[in-house]
Model the fold of this input.
Amino acid sequence: MKDRTRVNERIRAPMVRVVDAEGGQVGVMAIADALRLARDQGYDLVEVAPQARPPVCRIMDYGRYKYEQSKRLRKARQKTHQTQLKEVKMRPKIGEHDFQVKLNHARQFLEKRDKVKFTVRFRGREIVHLEFGQRLLLRMAEELEEVSTVEVAPRREGHTLTMVVSPRSTK
Done:
């Protein structure tokens, strides 16, 4: 991300509205006078509102301003989470221990605010007994109901049954 803020000699406008370091209005003046005023105080002249007529420039320490901006950006980025779709694959005749392991993985994904897609894959003649897969997915949804909601109910897609659950909102 390129910083487009104009500072000191990069400010192109002939006249600017100047705001001092404490936030008080100094007034509209020529760019040369504003630069001299900023230098006398030991600060930079930073263009904060380039779209205004005349542009608004503030007398401030530009290094500190950039630091504060990056800190604010980092804080905002921390609060966002890109939800991913994690997949948990199973077979219709899964063992109890394996089921518990898959359940714990799904619970971890949901606690990290990710969606989980459960897939039950049938091989050969197993497809005749879809009720095993249905029961498996419904049990999984029941076990996870305190941390998730079913977004897409169990449905058949060829030789697989799929179900999608999303994390419950934490309001």
Remarks:
- Residues 62-79 form the longest helix (18 residues).
